[in-house]
Amino acid sequence: MPKQGEDKPRRKRALPKEAMSRVDTAWLRMERPTNPMMITGVLMFAEPMSLAKLKQVIRKRFLSYARFRQKPVNTAAGAAWQDDEHFDLDRHVQLAALPGRGDRRVSEKRALERFVSQLASSPLDKARPLWQFHLVEKYDSGSALVARIHHSYADGIALVQVLLSLTDTKRVPDKGSELAKAWLKQDGVDVARRVGAVERYTRLGGKMFGKGVAMVQDPTLAAMLAREGGEIARELLYALALPDDPPSMLRGKLGVSKRVAWAPPLDLEEVKAVGRACDCTVNDVLMAAAAGALRDYMLERGDDVEGMTLRATVPVNLRPLEHARKLGNHFGLVFLDLPVGEGNPVRRLEHVAECMNQLKGSRQAIVAFGLLAALGMAPTALQGLALELFSRKASAVATNVPGPQQPLYMAGRTLREMMFWVPQTGSIGIGISILSYNGRVHFGLIADAKLIPDPDAVIRRFGPEFDKLLYLALMGDWERSLDSVSAYALMSEEG
Questions:
Q1: Domain enclosing residue 24, as ranges
Q2: 443-461 pLDDT, tens per residue?
Q3: CA–CA gap between residue 71 and residue 88 (Å, rounded)
Q4: Is the Cα torsion angle 376, 379, 382, 383 positive or negative in sign?
């Protein structure tokens, strides 16, 4: 009790809270011990990076997004964002040592893959803002940086742009220059087309584009569209009616450990050449090569894949690419066929291309966005049931993000390679990630350790599967597109 004349102790004022969007809430609540809901990225630099330099970049650029000083909290009205009054940058940006580095039998790359695997298996501390950077100061004559950011802050496309905003297009940037987004202005339309945004909205027409933009601004419209009749309802019924993915070694009870690996990069111009020869997109070529790598791995492990088609869920951007660095989740999901039962590599490519063309004219992504918004409002038990229902219809999550086709620098250090993985949801335990940067294409895999204990056995098949397509494209008739019949004839001749 204060004595007479003394001031009464002031009650500590509660920090203000900002309601979390329904879609972001859905991703926050999807967290499971078997599938932490975070995007994991690896950036490899040609020159060493110091912790002090990294913190300087994070403080100046990453924390310019006020959201990253906030943490999710629960309120009576639902999830919300609140400033972390005890925010400490040292808790979020740390030095790291690679496990097994002293073992000469373990390469530096394998040691880094093991380290990323450990981090991808470990959930972020919910008492603090849900992100961390781990710097390996000495890696392959330079440094490596591992970033982990929770999916509730933003989708993978936005978070890749956030990470790229830490870089510059010049080793020594001009004073007061914009963050590294020149590549967006330069290659934006081409990138958007490859992501699927431009062609998608051109086909749907201006009216549907308007609805897509409105959904970004007001997620309740997405839920309404998902309930309405017409084509939207048909897409919803189609998604619900999809049979479960067939039993295979890529499905099963998940554990709590992830395994990560990435392949040597491909030449982007060679990938484009195959696309031109086969009259399809870069994305089609890469997904077909990924399907071929999975097929070969499954066959070697004794899985019967004859005639089997698996599905992957693929995120589709639902906002203009120049707004991609705005935080929040603004994407839908579509189901892409992975024809692992097809032995002819060109027929496999034709199957993927046909499926992608059908998806570009559909409203699956918009329906999925609406469902995510609805799930953000639903009771936790109902959300769990819906998540399990949809995750049974696919065996993998697949992403392909076209990045800048010019060198980038962070604190004057050359960004040599990068790779990232989005989380898997529900009972899905496989993640396929493709990212192009500076004329090269990077392919990575993240997998539940119970399903694929050694993902390197899959990713080392990616290059040879692409080489098959490249060889057939070079051997074919350059006057017309290469089809599966021509490919079969060429393989028979070589046979």
A1: 17-164
A2: 999 999 999 999 999 999 9
A3: 13
A4: positive
